[in-house]
Amino acid sequence: xxxxxxxxxxxxxxxxxxxxxxxxxxxxxxxxxxxxxxxxxxxxxxxxxxxxxxxxxxxxxxxxxxxxxxxxxxxxxxxxxxxxxxxxxxxxxxxxxxxxxxxxxxxxxxxxx
Length: 113
Description:
By secondary structure, this protein is mostly helical. It has helices at 17-21, 23-29, 43-62, 68-110.
């Protein structure tokens, strides 16, 4: 038994990409407001991961889901969106660092004439 006296089924527990990547919006959409703590600088670095790990449990406890299948269907949309956003973010970061590395290398090579 957890928050509000609501048991969380084992099938519900697990990582939630939507809660990790879209934490504030996900929290508001799922009527759980602990993800708003992601607005606190520096603390949010850890809290992003807490949201990813605990998100499904919080959503189950705050929602009025009839069964696990309905819950999983709703969270599957959040999970897909979060995973796609994560992949895009990682790709952009890799391209950014490659670009910056290329610029720095170019600058260093042009000054050695």
